[in-house]
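To illustrate the input format used throughout this study, we show a single complete record. The first block contains the structure-token representation of the backbone; no residue identities are included at this stage. The design step must infer an amino acid for every position from geometry alone.
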């Protein structure tokens, strides 16, 4: 590949939202749990032809990222040490065990009212959320706010309907808005569990597949999971009713499904009124 081709490829990556160099050799993130991304991994095979020095890519520094098991252990330790939502948010912001953090501008933990009766759990920050540092502030977030308002709820403390908190399953934007990997979800899960414990909500709403699979691994896809109540067990005893719904980003692409989402919203409204 000559320099012009290499530059065109980089421009194409950038336009696709892939703006983070993770390593100088490709990493198969689907294999991450089996082949942890570490300094001591085997070296790539030598190129067939030596690259002249001026053509050679600059080496990308590789962080000594822990394996998934180590990262989950570190996340658990950090989550266990938090006694408040603010403390947990600080622990997440200080956590260095998730490689997504290196490519993110901000750590995105929550928005809305602490210990609110309604807790919404989304997927991962997108471009706007990464820029601003709050979940669900892009187009999908605006639709989510309208959906909440339609059943009399809001995340805004300045609003008389304010009774909602919003968080995510993963706290850093995946490059190019790809779906978070199993390893990334597993690493963030101890924090999410602790977020639920500290929030003690009356009802949890999971938007889309990623949050549904994070809390209920093996659950059917969102088309079959949505609209049916599940129970989330709390460490302090008791359970919280959980409703998976279509992700608002999906509803923006498939407006015909809003009919089903509306039926789910009515169930959520009734359950909140009853508790
Ligand atoms: N989608 C999500 O699931 N979470 C966000 O914060 C933004 C978009």
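Output of the design step:
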């Amino acid at each position: 590949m000559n320099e012009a081709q290499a530059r065109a490829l980089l421009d194409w990556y950038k336009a696709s939202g892939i703006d983070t160099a993770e390593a100088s050799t490709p990493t198969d993130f689907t294999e991450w749990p089996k082949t942890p991304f570490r300094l001591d991994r085997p070296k790539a095979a030598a190129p067939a032809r030596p690259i002249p020095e001026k053509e050679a890519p600059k080496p990308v520094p590789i962080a000594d990222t822990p394996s998934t098991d180590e990262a989950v252990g570190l996340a658990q330790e950090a989550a266990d040490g938090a006694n408040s939502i603010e403390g947990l948010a600080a622990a997440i912001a200080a956590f260095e065990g998730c490689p997504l953090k290196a490519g993110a501008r901000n750590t995105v933990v929550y928005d809305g009212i602490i210990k609110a009766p309604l807790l919404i759990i989304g997927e991962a920050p997108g471009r706007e959320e990464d820029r601003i540092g709050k979940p669900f502030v892009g187009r999908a977030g605006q639709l989510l706010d309208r959906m909440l308002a339609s059943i009399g709820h809001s995340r805004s403390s300045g609003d008389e309907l304010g009774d909602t908190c919003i968080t995510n399953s993963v706290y850093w934007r995946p490059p190019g808005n790809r779906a978070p990997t199993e390893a990334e979800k597993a690493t963030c899960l101890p924090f999410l569990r602790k977020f639920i414990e500290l929030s003690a909500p009356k009802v949890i709403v999971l938007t889309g597949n990623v949050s549904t699979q994070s809390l209920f691994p093996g659950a059917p896809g969102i088309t079959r999971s949505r609209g049916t109540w599940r129970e989330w067990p709390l460490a302090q005893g008791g359970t919280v009713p959980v409703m998976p719904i279509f992700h608002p980003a999906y509803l923006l692409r498939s407006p015909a499904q809003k009919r089903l989402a509306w039926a789910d919203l009515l169930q959520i409204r009734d359950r909140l009124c009853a508790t």
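Structural context for interpreting the output: The pocket of uracil is lined by residues 122-126, 129, 135-136, 140-141, 168, 207, 249 (CB under 6 Å). The radius of gyration is 21 Å.
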